[in-house]
Amino acid sequence: MKVGIVGFPRSGKTTIFNALTEQEAQVGSFAEPGAVHLGTIKVPDARVDELARRFRPRKVTYAEIVFVDFPAPLGSSSSSALDPTTIAQMRDVDALVQVVRGFVDPLTAEPPAPVRDLEAFKSELVLNDLMIVERRLERLKKEKGKERERALLERLKQTLDAEQALRRMEWTAEEATALAGFGFLSRKPFMAVWNVGEEHAREPLPPEMQAWLEQEGVPGLVLAGQIEMEIAKLPEQDRPAFLADLGLASSARERFIRMAYELLDLISFLTAGEDEVRAWTIRRGTTAVKAAGKIHSDIERGFIRAEVVAFEDFVHYGSEAKAREAGKLRLEGKDYVVRDGDMIHFRFNV
Q1: CA 224, 68, 26 angle in degrees (round to 5)?
Q2: Is 275 inside any structural domain?
Q3: How far apart are CA 61 and CA 119, in angstroms?
Q4: pLDDT value at position 76?
Q5: Whether residue 49 is found in the same domain as residue 187
Q6: Residue 267 to residues 35, 181, 314: CA-CA distances in angstroms?
Q7: What residues in the chain have per-residue pLDDT under 50?
Q8: Is the domain of 180 the same as that of 143?
């Protein structure tokens, strides 16, 4: 999973990036103009820890999230347009996270204006998508036999002309496939981070921001980026005490991961053995044969059956053999919908 972190100048997005990834990318005036920062984190999973304890494998692999910290728009205005290079890079991520300034602008002394910033960024995404749709419609005037595509793009244009994000639309599976190659930005899953000072870490989102997010169907999260970045630099055993002083039960990373998994509707299935214990991230609703392809295309192509046992049942009975005796390990076909925490062994032949 690749998540893009975006935001206007001085919103503190690179500070949030550092808090989430435990990196030390330069922030503010020290940052290199136009620099893109990359960071990968492992998704904590107690189930993987337990299986590693039981199997003692040679390798343990957690699910991962890749964060991409995109450069802020050039210029001092908080409503500056995104540059073409950044827009092109943003098309490659699975979700977008806008960091919204929740403190007085250190350069202009301007107070926070969350709805303005959210609306301005949404407008940028919508405008860029509209340009793509209009260019494609213009080309289709010269092509025959593309009536269905033309009708679909006209629907998109109506939504974009109304200044609405494409994520608000409902799609059939066929339509989603047809549109996948366009890389529409306003169609990507989106969430907002309200970046506040330490003294506001326990406060809820501002009412006007909460109302905007609910109207748009977008989740929001409060993070005190500066102090959480500093906590992320501490030895792991020292962090809980500092978080407790802030009145927080978990770190910025943990809270963000939970929201990101909910936003993208992600789950994990597990594979375990002496060679490796591993968590595999898939979207909820994925079938067994498609989950097999997550491991290797040969397993998907030669899929026969999936041996499945729920993690809780495996732990309760102590082994796959005892789970099988209790009727908890079962054989499933290619159309079985994988559940969160399923331990799976795929039978295949190629």
Answers
A1: 60
A2: no
A3: 39
A4: 44
A5: yes
A6: 32, 25, 18
A7: 30, 76-78, 81
A8: yes
Contacts of 49 (CB under 8 A, 6+ apart): none
Residues 83 and 181 in one domain: yes
Q: For residue 43, how far is the Cα from the chain centroid?
A: 12
CA distance 119 to 163: 10
The reply to whether 241 and 333 lie within a common domain is no
Tell me whether strands 95-101 and 2-6 are parallel, antiparallel or unpaired: parallel
> Is residue 273 a part of any domain in this protein?
no
Helix (H, G, I), strand (E, B) or coil at 276: strand
Length of the chain: 350
Per-residue pLDDT, 80 = 54
Q: How far apart are CA 78 and CA 278, in angstroms?
A: 43
Q: Cα–Cα–Cα angle for 212, 213, 214, nearest 5°? A: 90
What pLDDT, in 10s, does the model give residues 124-173? 999 999 999 999 999 998 888 888 899 999 999 999 999 999 998 988 88
* Token pair belonging to 128: 């860029």
Percent of the chain clearing pLDDT 70 (strictly above):
95
Contact call for residues 231 and 239 (beta carbons, < 8 A): yes
The total of structural domains in the chain comes to 2
Supply the pLDDT for residue 142.
85
Dihedral angle computed from the Cα positions of residues 69, 81, 121 and 30, in that order, rounded to the nearest 10 degrees:
30
Residue 259 shares a structural domain with residue 159? yes
Q: Which structural domain range is residue 69 located in?
A: 2-263
Same domain, 224 and 335: no
Alpha-carbon gap, residue 64 to 67, rounded angstroms:
10
| Same domain, yes or no: 114 and 147 | yes
Nearest one of 8, 22, 32, 11 to 229, comparing CA atoms: 22
Assess if residue 39 is contained within a domain. Answer: yes
Predicted TM-score (pTM) of the model is 0.86
CATH of residue 119's domain is 3.40.50.300
